[in-house]
Design a protein that fits this description.
The structure holds 3 protein chains of 3 kinds. By secondary structure, chain A is an alpha/beta fold. Chain A is built from 16 helices and 13 strands. By secondary structure, chain B is of the alpha/beta class. Among the domains of chain B are: 156 residues, Domain of unknown function (DUF4445) (Nucleotidyltransferase, domain 5, 2-Layer Sandwich), CATH 3.30.420.480; 77 residues, 2-Layer Sandwich (Alpha-Beta Plaits). In chain B, the strands form 6 sheets. Chain B has a 7-stranded mixed β-sheet, sandwiched between helices. A 7-stranded mixed β-sheet of chain B has the order 20-9-8-7-18-19-21, with helices on both faces. Chain B has a 4-stranded mixed β-sheet with strand order 12-11-10-13. Classes of the chains: A alpha/beta, B alpha/beta, C alpha/beta. Chains B and C meet through α1, α5, α13, α14 and α16 of B and α5 and α6 of C.
């Protein structure tokens, strides 16, 4: 695998919502990143519905149907539906396939009947538990690949939220240990993704399916949720921001292995990924408040190609089912963005989105297009190893945060960030040295098996 | 017969002796102690002991220690014709067995009420026989002069041995000891003073602190991501130690290297500087999981240690700033610094500069070793120099400066306290200096030329090398038959100086006198559940009632 | 497009606001002049304060200036110091400024103002190292006590006599030279003899907890910074024994 050594975008100024340098064309002709923003609705089945394949099929059928129907009702020109596998759909790959087949059929119907441009992403569940099994050699690992094979027969796009390095990440995040984040995310997560995605891309090719992308949701989003907002103090916002910068190193691996996008919605690192690769990305912000809070609700739309809601559990609301309601919300968001494009105000609109959140938190700050591009540049300029580029990304984001006087820190945040940066600067330059150090340091972490990562 | 002379530096934290062949000038052997023989860790403790148990008792313990040192020099005592001592007025007075009350107290009201007269501490040469219990015959004992109260022969030694007065340039000499002697020389005038830095710079009252002895950590360098230790070998020369993770997150790497047994003040300064630089210390806190810095082998450095060391450094910085103000010069005017004492010799001058121990703008630093011992050796070879020393002493008598009663020093020292123990930023420290119209503290970006005139604090260990005496004080066993062996006294003793022995129905407590903190501590006495433990039982009977005492 | 630095109409950084509000001196008076007095105390600007107090003494009652400006400002300084925002040298400057201001007001008043209570401080006989006492004095002044400062090298009898005359709520003793610490039990003994059971706070490098608690009345003061809280306890009527139980052991 060759690590990226150049930026797809020459500058952040060229980056805009709706357009990616390398758009992706789906089965029914819908182009992602081809000039307009497409809503991506993610309905989620209610607990209990997964008990039998029958009840689960019914649940998805209703949720998807409601979304598609609402598109027609309010006039949304295009939609992507994502179904994230619940455990049973991957554990019984047959289930995943049946649901994919049913969804594809629903999409075909709406395409044929109304001309609704639509596509379907099936996201396989990573049911491997890093602290319990050998990541590369277990029954569960086999089932994941089987699920990919089955689902890719019907889906436009396949994706996964991979869990490599999660055991070290979880151990480190509660200890505020930035070294552990680097090791868990970049070194282990990146290695796991390389192995995983080499296989996924092959499967996708065989079934004429699009290998979408991956995310550091298991790591950087955990950090982001723990950091919370302006009240919670479990971990510093600045550590979450560093975890985000580090996550670029592993998430990028999927694309280096042949994934073509669109990137997964929950990958808040996607603006940086887009700057480096030029692939279309899905992002989420205010409309994902149903799933979790964030401090970058508008900003995340600044360079998006698909605009998502993360996940909404299927339920009744005053305005219809949650699936329909959120489709409508996303549809109007996309309509506003697309209007700006049509009017030629896209840069102005983008400025509004950015200014809404740029200085709201350290995390949102580093995801602004200019900063995202700069961090991406640090990544490609330090491409000796997964580790070196992750460390460079973290150091760069620290530098950016410190150098903009408009970004305000509480004393706690500032002190924490200073400490992390000193710790990062003190680390070895060579990945081999770093791995040696970490293998010693984390040898006693429960369930950590270097062999899972071929170390 | 070869005529021999013995030179001894009577330091507050330990004694250092050398034997010299008078005719050839050659150094034959060296012996040092790892402690001071009297209980306590500073001169006030020693004085307090002498007040409580009598000057004679203190003097006898002193002379016992001197006798032991002479024995360890391994030469025929019959050939010793001259003994020269050097040190601060307290040590020289206790050695001589003369008045110390003027040193033990301060303040005119106390002096009046106790009718304390300040004795002359001029140079004298007396026969060894006139000093009780000194095991030397037909030998002259030379005691050099003091400048005044608290500024003694050791300060003179420093001024003379550095030759600072022979050059035109503005210079400062600092002896980095428990009492930091400071001499500022500017345009032909010299001001001397003594700052009560405390024993931290001698490696004491630091939980794992030791003097410059074999196995001690003398330096710490950053070798990312670890810290590289430098230890002292058996000849007190620096050798490579292991790589350690000061944060304590991982064990030392490469454990084939010798293990540290403690940390010297120079090691402390290096560790502090490197920890501040790498963010492990954010004053006044140590930012590691257990709030300690780790060096392996259970050697660590605590936040209390940081405060102690900080105050010691602070006293010195407040000292030189005060003298600059007194001399009407700015800190930048100081061109050269002479650093003496073990700490002054071994410390990495650049690190010392960074933590604030030396004026940050000096152009040259000389690290000159133990000038007190060097002066004693010089007098041993050349007793006529005593006259020169005396004339200098009388010349300097008018220009000494007393920090304790100086408002300038007090104001600056409060800034130091705030900097080291409250975490006041240095920028605010500087603003206060400006507000007070005191000399400004320059930025620590100087890059002075570093000249080491010696290879260790005692430059030449002699033909027969170095002997280290770990237990210079007496170890005394005393019967306490009512003792219930509740062990409280053992537990509260901050220096592990006590142990209990129960044999054939008889219970004794054993005290290592040199480790004992003395009368100012007495934690064992206060803690004793049946109030039978007293320090008196060890020290009062020491000489009065020899029959009931057993020395081990 | 250059990002806007003014964002308060777009979002509110409650985390920063709370911190800033905690860490800056609060407004203490609606009156412009009194607020200016308080500001001078907060910044420790003695010269400016004296000029200001002199000028507004023409229009305001001295006690109003003392309570509404000088003491109110000092309370903010003490609060900020407890938060770790202010440092000791700043507290001393502010305390000195407040005393200078009060002195001016007292001149106009024609009598000394009434303080919370009296405290007697001293440094042991035979010791001139009084930095600890300097800090204690400043902090007690800052906390509104009338400090009877006996200075350094104070004979035992002088301390007892001062307590007899002033009847302070606490008496403090500082010693650096251990040779001088024996004066403390003598003072405690003398006070008990004349039935003055005043809490006697002893501190400084020379004394340890075991020594100070070995004689009646003695309470070991670990840090000079504890002085105001100790005085507060005595003011609230705690006996020396109750204070010892609370602060020592």
């Amino acid at each position: 695998m060759k690590l990226s050594n150049s930026m797809a975008y020459k500058s952040a100024k060229e980056m805009i919502f709706g357009t990616a340098l390398k758009p992706v064309k789906t089965k029914r002709g819908l182009i992602l990143g081809g000039g307009y923003v497409i809503p991506e609705i993610v309905p989620h089945p209610r607990p209990g519905s997964e008990k039998t394949i029958k009840s689960l099929l019914r649940e998805f059928e209703r949720a998807n149907e409601d979304a598609l129907e609402r598109c027609v009702i309010v006039g949304i020109p295009a939609i992507q539906i994502e179904n994230e596998h619940v455990f049973q759909m991957t554990d019984n790959p047959q289930w995943g396939m049946e649901i994919a087949a049913q969804t594809a059929h629903q999409l075909d119907e709406y395409y044929e009947k109304y001309g609704l441009k639509c596509s379907y992403r099936s996201t396989i569940a990573d049911i491997r538990k890093p602290d319990q099994i050998d990541m590369r050699n277990s029954e569960r690992t086999d089932k994941i690949f089987e699920a990919f094979k089955y689902s890719s027969k019907y889906a436009d796009i396949i994706s996964i939220e991979s869990l490599g390095g999660k055991e070290i990440f979880d151990y480190s995040i509660i200890r505020n240990d930035v070294t552990g984040l680097l090791f868990g995310q970049a070194v282990l997560g990146g290695r796991d993704m390389e192995w995983l995605w080499t296989n996924i891309v092959d499967i996708a090719k065989n079934n004429n399916c699009i290998p979408g992308g991956d995310t550091s949701c298991a790591h950087a989003n955990t950090a982001m949720f723990m950091a919370g907002g302006f009240i919670s103090k479990d971990i510093p916002q600045t550590l979450a921001a560093l975890s985000r910068a580090i996550s670029v190193s592993n998430t990028l691996v999927a694309y280096e292995c042949g994934a073509v996008g669109p990137g997964k919605d929950c990958a808040y690192e996607n603006p940086i990924i887009k700057a480096i690769t030029g692939i279309p990305i899905s992002t989420e912000g205010k409309a994902s408040a149903c799933a979790h809070m964030d401090l970058c609700g508008n900003l995340m739309a600044a360079v998006c190609d698909l605009w998502s809601n993360e996940a909404i559990q299927y339920t009744d609301m005053f305005g219809g089912s949650s699936s329909a309601v959120f489709t409508e919300i996303l549809g109007y968001d996309a309509a506003a963005l697309n209007s700006a494009i049509e009017l030629g105000f896209q840069k102005q609109f983008q400025a509004c989105l950015i200014n809404s959140d740029r200085y709201r938190s350290p995390h949102s700050f580093i995801l602004c297009p200019d900063n995202a591009w700069a961090i991406g540049k640090a990544v490609v300029d330090n491409n000796e190893s997964l580790y070196s580029r992750a460390r460079a990304a973290a150091l760069k984001s620290g530098e950016l945060m410190f150098n903009d006087p408009n970004l305000q820190f509480t004393a706690f945040e500032k002190e924490s960030l200073t400490k992390y940066i000193k710790e990062l600067e003190a680390l070895p330059d060579k990945e081999d040295d770093f791995i040696d150090m970490c293998l010693k340091k984390y040898s006693k972490v429960k369930g950590f098996k270097p062999s899972s990562y071929n170390l | 017969m070869t005529q021999l002379a013995v030179a001894i530096d009577l330091g507050t934290s330990g004694f250092r002796a050398q034997c010299i062949n008078i005719s050839s000038g050659e150094i034959l052997s060296t012996a040092i102690t790892t402690n001071h023989p009297l209980p306590g860790s500073n001169i006030i403790d020693h004085l307090h002991f002498a007040l409580e148990y009598g000057i004679e008792t203190a003097h006898n313990i002193f002379i016992d220690a001197v006798n032991r040192l002479i024995t360890e020099l391994c030469v025929d005592t019959k050939n010793i014709v001259r003994l020269v001592v050097c040190g601060n007025p307290t040590q020289l007075s206790l050695f001589h067995g003369t008045e110390i009350k003027d040193l033990a107290f301060a303040g005119s009201r106390k002096f009046e009420s106790m009718q304390i007269e300040i004795p002359d501490r001029d140079a004298i040469i007396i026969p060894a026989e006139s000093i009780t219990n000194l095991n030397l015959l037909n030998c002259d004992v030379i005691i050099p002069p003091s400048i005044c109260h608290h500024v003694g022969a050791d300060a003179l030694a420093m001024i003379i041995q550095t030759s600072m007065l022979d050059k035109e340039e503005t210079s400062i000499s600092i002896d980095f000891g428990t009492n930091a002697e400071i001499a500022l020389f500017h345009k032909g005038k010299i001001i001397t003073a003594s700052a009560a830095a405390g024993p931290a710079l001698e490696g004491q009252e630091i939980s794992c602190g030791v003097l410059a002895i074999p196995g001690a950590i003398a330096d710490v360098e950053y070798s990312k991501p670890y810290f590289k230790l430098t230890l002292l070998d058996n000849d007190l020369m620096p050798v490579e130690g292991s790589l350690v993770d000061m944060s304590g997150k991982s064990q030392p790497v490469n454990s084939n290297f010798p293990k540290p047994i403690g940390i010297t003040s120079t090691g402390t300064i290096a560790a502090m500087y490197k920890a501040i630089e790498t963010g492990l210390i954010s004053l006044p806190r140590i930012c590691t999981a257990d709030k300690r810095l780790h060096f392996g082998n259970n050697i660590s450095f605590t936040e209390e240690d940081l405060a102690e060391a900080g105050k010691a450094i602070g006293a010195i910085r407040a000292g030189y700033l005060t003298l600059c103000k007194a001399a009407g010069i700015s800190v930048e005017d100081i061109h050269t610094i002479y650093m003496s004492g073990a700490a002054g010799t071994y410390v990495d001058a650049k690190k010392a500069l960074q933590v604030g121990m030396i004026p940050p703008s000096v152009k040259k630093t000389y690290q000159v070793g133990n000038t007190s011992l060097a002066m004693a050796c010089r007098l041993a070879k050349n007793p006529n120099d005593l006259e020169f020393m005396s004339s200098l002493a009388s010349k300097l008598r008018d220009t000494h400066y007393i920090f304790a009663s100086s408002d300038i020093f007090k104001k600056i020292f409060i800034l130091e306290l705030s900097y080291w123990t409250e975490g006041m930023p240095l920028s605010m420290y500087r603003n206060f200096l400006k507000k007070y119209s005191f000399p400004a503290l320059p930025n620590a970006d100087g890059n002075p030329e570093i000249i080491r005139t010696v290879k260790r604090d005692i430059d030449d260990l002699g033909l027969f090398g170095l002997k280290t005496i770990p237990n210079i004080g007496r170890i005394v066993k005393r019967n306490f038959d009512q003792c219930t062996i509740c062990n409280v006294c053992i537990d509260v003793c901050p220096t592990n100086a006590l142990s209990i022995l129960s044999e054939s129905g008889s219970i004794s407590i054993i005290l290592n006198e040199a480790l004992c903190r003395g009368v100012s501590c007495k934690k064992c006495e206060y803690a004793c559940s049946i109030k039978i433990m007293t320090l008196d039982s060890f020290f009062k009977i020491h000489f009065d009632d020899k029959t009931s005492e057993e020395e081990i | 497009m250059k990002p806007k630095s003014e964002t308060n109409k777009i979002f509110t950084r409650y985390d920063i606001n709370v911190e800033v509000a905690r860490q800056t001196a609060r407004k203490v008076s609606e009156d412009e002049n009194l607020q200016k007095v308080a500001d001078c105390i907060v910044s420790g600007n003695e010269d400016e304060l004296e000029n200001l107090v002199k000028s507004i003494l023409h229009i305001k009652e001295p006690m109003e200036i003392i309570n509404g400006g000088l003491i109110a400002g000092m309370k903010e300084v003490s609060r900020l110091w407890e938060l770790g925002v202010y440092f000791l040298p700043q507290v001393i400057l502010s305390s000195d400024s407040m005393i200078a201001g009060i002195k001016l007001c007292e001149q106009k008043l024609g009598r000394p103002m009434e303080k919370k209570a009296k405290v007697v401080t001293h440094t042991a006989e035979g010791d001139i190292h009084d930095i600890g006492q300097v800090i204690v004095n400043a902090l007690l002044n800052a906390a509104g006590y009338e400090v009877i400062n006996l200075g350094a090298d104070v004979p035992v009898d002088d301390v007892i006599e001062a307590c007899r005359i002033h009847k302070p709520i606490i008496v403090t003793g500082t010693a650096l030279m251990t040779t001088t610490m024996t004066a403390f039990p003598k003072i405690a003994f003398g006070l008990k003899q004349i039935n003055l059971n005043i809490p006697f706070i002893c501190g400084g490098g020379a004394v340890n907890e075991e020594f100070v608690t070995s004689f009646d009345l003695g309470i070991w003061g670990k840090e000079a910074s504890q002085a105001p809280a100790l005085a507060e306890d005595a003011l609230n009527g705690l006996s020396w024994l109750e204070m010892r139980t609370k602060w020592n052991g």
